[in-house]
Amino acid sequence: MGNILRQPAELSFQSELDILKSEDTGPKPSNWQLSPQAVVTYLLGGKSPSGKEISAKYIGNRRLIETAVATLATDRALLLLGVPGTAKSWVSEHLSAAICGDSTQVIQCTAGTDENQIRYGWNYAQLLSKGPSKDALVPTPLYRAMESGTLCRLEELTRMGSDVQDTLITVLSEKMLPIPELNDAVFAERGFNVIATANNRDKGVNELSSALKRRFNVVVLPLPNDLNQELEIINQRVAEMGASLDIPVPKNAVEEIKKVVTIFRELRGGETLDGKITLKTPTGNLSTAEAIAVMVGGLSQANWFGGGSLSAEDISSNIVGAIVKDPVQDKVVLEEYLETVLKKRRDFADYYHNINEVL
Amino acid sequence: MAVAQNDIHYFGIRHHGPGSCQRLLSELETLKPAKILIEGPSDCSEDIQWLAKHGMTPPVALLAYNAEQSGSSLYYPFAEFSPEYQACLFALQRKLDVAFIDLPVAIQLAKPEPQAEESALDDSEATLEKSDQEPEAKSETEEPICSDNPLNESSEISKDPFSYLAELSGYEDGESWWNDFIEQNSDNQSLIFELIETIMTELRAHTEISDRDIQREAYMRLEIDKARKQTEGPIAVICGAWHVPALKEKHTLKANREILKSLPPKLTKSKVRSAWVPWTSPRLAVASGYGAGVKAPQWYQHLWRHRDNPQSLSLWLGKIAQTLREKGHIVSTASVIEAVRLYQALAVIRNKPNVGLEEVRDSVISSVCFGEELQWREIEQRLLLGNEVGSIPDDAPLIPLLEDLQKQQKALRLKPEALEKNLALDLRSSAGLTKSILLHRLTVLNVPWGKITDAGNSRGTFRERWILCWQPEFSVQLIENLVYGNTIELAANNKLIEAFNQENQLSQLANSVQLALEAQLNAAAEVGLKRIDEHATHTTDTLELLSSLSPLISIVRYGTARELSLHQIGELVERLMVQAAVSLPYSCRNLNQEEAIHYCRVINQAHQSILIAEFEQDLMSEWWSSLRDVMALDSADAQVRGLSARLLYVSEKIDADRLHILLQRMLSSSVEVSESAKFFEGFFDGVIDRLLFDTSLRKTVENWLIDLDEDVFVEFLPLFRRVFSQLDAMENRRFLDTVLNGKQNATRGTTPDLSLTDSWTEHFTAVSKLIRRDTKWTQNQ
Predict the structure, then answer these.
(1) Contact A217/B342, CB-based, under 8 Å?
(2) Tell me, what's the pLDDT at B540?
(3) Residue A40 burial class via C-beta count within 10 angstroms: exposed 0-12, middle 13-18, buried 19 and up
(4) Can you list the alpha helix ranges (DSSP code H) found in B98-210?
(5) How close B371 comes to chain A (CA, Å)?
(6) A67 touching B, CB under 8 A?
(7) CA A141, CA A118: separation in Å to the nearest integer?
(8) Do A73 and B370 touch (CB under 8 A)?
(9) B136 CB contacts (<8 Å, ≥6 apart)?
């Protein structure tokens, strides 16, 4: 472990993976480390066959994870869609960790990504001295995944240009990467597959062409649909992150998390939880991930600058930062929310005052 | 003559389960029973024979009702894949004895519960339990009604134990569970029913059995015993699996009778009627008042029809793809193939031996719908619920609503005819009024037998013109309303009340109240008025307020023949008018063109209504000042300003001088031409003929038009054309004459033609004779 800030999933959850692997009796698709059922158990948590506890990596609809794993088992590529902060990359990382034991074959797609970063690049020194040959190729994560029959993750697929996206079409349908320069091709080993994530809020960034889209099975990850589910997610992640950053999590954190989640859910949903008051919604999407970030920020502030216990004061500035993305519009929304809703709630009095101060 | 106890064979079935149905039939085939007893109301046994008649197509339902107390009725729906239906057919085709053995409807309907809600609950329970066809439906309907009832769980289990078990083992659909657990676990036919019995005995041991079930089971035991004594040969008893252990228990006659003592006395035979009614496939599934159905009747039907076809799943997927394509989605064959591969993989991951409804759905969403659940939802209803309508033989007994309609048709001498026919009604005569009320009520019930031709004006006059045209599907549509009541009046009232409770738009509410009054549905009208009252306070949308005004005002003005308290509406209208007047100046800013047109239409309409409403002076002044504010408000939409100015001017609330100043200002060159044009349109739209006789108005407009640059003028030509084309040919000529020859030749059009002087005198004499009613006058004179 040592000084590494954040270990990849297959290392931080190595013990769980080992347990599942040793006890797994189900049939495995070729080159998979675990059987599909064991992968589902790893993702959703539960008990290993011998009764050992496996923690939940994804809290939410079981159906979705089953569909995702089934997709990968059929050699069809998987596309995880969702608004920012719905654990797309998180699921993708854990899926690769569980299936091929390596979640690090990632291509982060950006507007600047070109074909060389998807297919292969050239080592120009080699190329000049020895001419075109396989030795002069610089493989990409995709190339390596095809050769080794493992998973390649493409993050934020829609961020890269459509022309670059379309290089994937042959790879996905024919499982083959042509190298026209050498009159050669890389044929994917069994077990190769692609997990892509994309954000469906920023529509039109570089919309997938329909030819490419239909080569994926798509799983849309939703925002948590009830308060308790979201609380569970945040409690768990805050505790985990607190531990990895060496920040103690005070006892009252659970209560505060509940309050923060309430504020987030109400603003996101455009109405109070009891459905009595309609609210304006801010421009940001206030995802669960942002709520986690707010809490971790608050914890760190409480730990280093506060008395160690978490107070509304520590959290408020983070809340404002998360909600007010547009300095004019969102401020009005938040002020209105403070005056019409929070002011009347006695247990939110701290938040009302502190947020007002920050504003 | 009697049959030995051990020659009675009990078949615990899953209501509406195609799998269970299939097993039952093959079992009956081997058993060759002499008599078949089915869980169903014992006094309706005679109705069974209809099922085999030509023209009887499921889904149908057996309806039993109390002829004297409207609103109390029970339904027993039968689908093609219902084991009970197939068992009846089996018996009828082989001419075997078949009978129902459950509590008679005469007892069930005898319950002393006039309250609407309670009866609805009972009905739903009865629908499901007795018919024993719709287990899932039952639980769905009951949930909202008695969710706080602790017994709820046990009653749900008893209605569909299989779905309950399925849920426990993580299945969404009882049928998949049946397939995976019951069918897979036994190859031996007869073992299956034993297996089911064992499961049920276990389940019953851990559940509280409701009193109702205990009574029903006791009754069934008595009936079985009776049948045993009269029959020779094996007897097959077909009932919900839940009841099998209880029916097999040994009870003395006395003990059984003891249990039944608590039942209410039977209704006399004359009061209870039963009839077959056509049912619809969505009704098998939707929780609609009486509760109904299975989750996905069409899926079950598919399973049943293709039960021997190994490719049944691919067919189903093909159907999904087709439905999606019909909705305009592009579904390639390749995607369908991917979906097949995915559902196979999913079934493996979920450890299921068979692919079920859920796997198909999840895979279709993921590979065909690109993860969009919405796309699936769009077709879900059509796919799973379908739109099939059953039919009953022509000579079958009639159902109450149709009976009611026929009675009224006879009384009013209105015959249903398929060809269009015009009907003019005089609402002052009681015959005319009754006819109008009937037609309106049918409209409420979604049976548009008559279409009113001058809709909207009906209250302004005592005449109504209808076009009558009867379509055969109307009987079915009428029958669908049975959920709301047994008579047309009752059903229409209840249906409208339901609609009121779901409607949140003020203007819609107002329109419906008007409809309720026209159809003389007072109960509904009162509910509607109450809803409007509640909503008026919370509505801030000016358009809503304005558009609710017209129907309400016409109720106040012309609806006084009704017994309803109109005082209440009067107050309501005043309040709405004031609210609208206050909010109008704020809301007509920043409108785009479409909105502006919409605003103008609504304001104009409301204005006309307000004028005839005869409000008090100070109320009217609110409205005038609101219009004045709009007119003077620079930030308001120009078109709405134009309209306001016109309305004020026409009602002489602003004088000509003021108007001209405004017109000149709005049409001056300093104002954006597009703004001026909008103002112009708002002002003159529909009343351009004003220009014919209002010289100064004309001059202002003329100056504005002349000042326009040519290209700007060309740009707005369509607008001018639209506005000026409202003049007819005659007016148009006069208008052109006045404009073109304005100064020197104003009288040109009326210069007398001297050559006509002679004939004019003649005409004059003839006309005066005519006026004096001189009958001797003829054309030739």
Answers:
(1) yes
(2) 67
(3) buried
(4) 105-108, 116-131, 135-145, 152-159, 161-168, 174-177, 189-205
(5) 5
(6) yes
(7) 8
(8) no
(9) B16, B160, B163, B174, B293, B294, B295
Where is B74: in which H helix or E strand?
strand B73-78
Helix residue ranges, H only, B388-521: 400-412, 430-444, 473-480, 488-502, 506-518
Spatial distance between the Cα atoms of B288 and B501, rounded to a whole number of angstroms? 15
Is residue B121 over pLDDT 80? no
Among A36, A217, A219, select the one facing B348 at the smallest CB separation: A36
- The percentage of residues in chain B with a pLDDT greater than 90, rounded to a whole number, is 0
List CB contacts (< 8 A) between B365 and chain A.
Answer: 67
Q: Is the pLDDT at B134 greater than 50, yes or no? A: no
B732 pLDDT above the threshold of 90: no
- A219 interface with B at CB cutoff 8 Å: yes
Structure tokens at A82: 């969702």
Q: Kindly report, residue by residue over B737-747, the tens digit of the pLDDT.
A: 877 765 544 44
Measured CA angle at B93 (ends B91, B99), to 5 deg: 25
Q: At a CB cut-off of 8 Å and minimum separation 6, what does B598 contact? A: B543
Contact across the interface for B345 and A74, Cβ inside 8 Å: yes
Query: What's B389's DSSP letter?
Result: B
- In the predicted model, is pLDDT for residue B642 greater than 90? no
What whole-number percentage of chain B has pLDDT above 70?
81
Task: Give the gap in angstroms from C-alpha B383 to the nearest C-alpha of chain A.
Answer: 21
Which residue is closest to A39 within chain B, CA to CA? B349
Contact B324, B331 (CB under 8 A): yes
Highest mean pLDDT among B445-459, B564-578, B639-653: B639-653
Mean pLDDT of the B510-521 span = 82
Render pLDDT for B618-633 as a digit per residue (tens, 0 to 9): 778 888 888 888 888 8
- What CA–CA distance (Å, rounded) separates B163 from B161? 6
Pairing status of strand A137-139 against strand A120-122: antiparallel
Query: Which candidate from A36, A70, A79 shows the least CB-CB separation from B342?
Result: A70
Using CB atoms, pick whichever of A36, A74, A220 lies closest to residue B342.
A74
Asked if B42 contacts B99 with a C-beta cutoff of 8 angstroms, the reply is yes
Query: In this structure, is the dihedral angle defined by the CA atoms of residues B732, B738, B739 and B741, taken in order, positive or negative?
Result: positive
Question: Residue-wise over B135-162: b if at least 16 C-beta within 10 A, else e?
Answer: bbbbbbbbeebeeeeeeeebbbbbbbbb
Q: Which of A66, A79, A214 sits opposite B349 (nearest CB)?
A: A66
ipTM of the assembly?
A: 0.75
**Separation of alpha carbons B336 and B351, rounded Å:** 23
Give yes or no for residue B691 having a pLDDT over 80: no
Prior bond to B448 cis, omega within 30? no
Say whether residue B363 is in contact with chain A using an 8 A CB cutoff: yes
Alpha-carbon distance of B67 to A313, in angstroms, equals 71
How big is the A-B interface in CB pairs under 8 Å?
A: 64
Provide, rounded to the nearest whole percent, the portion of chain A with pLDDT above 70: 97
Instruction: Quote the CA–CA distance of B447 and B434 in Å, as a whole number.
Output: 17
Structure tokens at A304: 């280093």
| Out of B349, B363, B370, closest to residue A36 by CB | B349
Of A179, A226, A221, A213, whose CA–CA distance to A92 is shortest?
Answer: A221
CA A78 to each of CA B258, B296, B457: distance values in angstroms, whole numbers, following the listed order: 65, 29, 60
Q: What is the pLDDT of residue A118?
A: 92
Q: What pLDDT was estimated at residue B185?
A: 55
Does residue B394 surpass a pLDDT of 90?
no
CA gap B699, B660 in Å, rounded: 10
Length of chain A: 359
Give the contacts of B233 (CB within 8 A, at least 6 positions apart).
Answer: B3, B7, B33, B34, B35
Residue B369 distance to chain A (closest CA, Å): 8
pTM: 0.62
